[in-house]
Write a structure and sequence with these properties.
single chain; alpha+beta; twelve-stranded mixed beta sheet; 12 strands
Length: 168
């Protein structure tokens, strides 16, 4: 779905169960057949149920309807990384995008090439407390493992595209 011209505001709504709704006040930086690319420079506002603030580093987020993950390129000079938010497939909404987080996060740390899947403890708690269905838990596990393998292989063209957009 075309959510707008580059530069248009595109709020990203991230729903954490039972943690509530987080939002990020991003901008459309590109649209292509593979999805929407959103950017947040240093100073971009965000809000969570327990806090609010601004980004200390720039980010680029890539989303596509129907794909059960969202990619976040994080320009942290101390730990440049690509974080994959495993989620229910993102949905375009009137003012941007929204998705339900499924807790597991494959992460590529650029400095040393290390790939890990973070937040297994949050995933297990969500499963045990019934905050996600067994079907969603299976989707999260399978997707996280597949995305970690993609990050390790490093061959997908979108990997470079995200860094290029972050650096532009």
């Amino acid at each position: 779905m075309d959510i707008g011209e580059p530069g248009k505001r595109a709020r990203l709504w991230k729903i954490k169960r039972p943690g509530g709704v987080y939002w990020f006040d991003l901008r459309v930086i590109a649209e292509d057949p593979d999805g929407s690319w959103l950017g947040g420079p240093v100073g971009t506002p965000w809000c969570a149920p327990h806090d609010r603030g601004t980004f200390p580093v720039p980010v680029v987020v890539w989303l596509a309807a129907g794909r059960p993950w969202a990619a976040w390129w994080v320009g942290d000079p101390g730990d440049r990384r690509l974080e994959i938010d495993v989620c229910l497939p993102p949905e375009p909404v009137e003012d941007g995008w929204r998705y339900v987080d499924l807790e597991l996060d494959p992460v590529l740390h650029v400095r040393d090439g290390r790939v890990e899947i973070e937040d297994w403890d949050e995933y297990e708690e969500a499963r045990l407390r019934g905050w996600m269905t067994e079907r969603d838990a299976e989707l999260a596990r399978v997707t996280a493992e597949a995305c970690a393998e993609l990050l390790k292989a490093g061959a997908e063209p979108w990997l470079d595209r995200g860094w290029q957009l972050l650096n532009s």
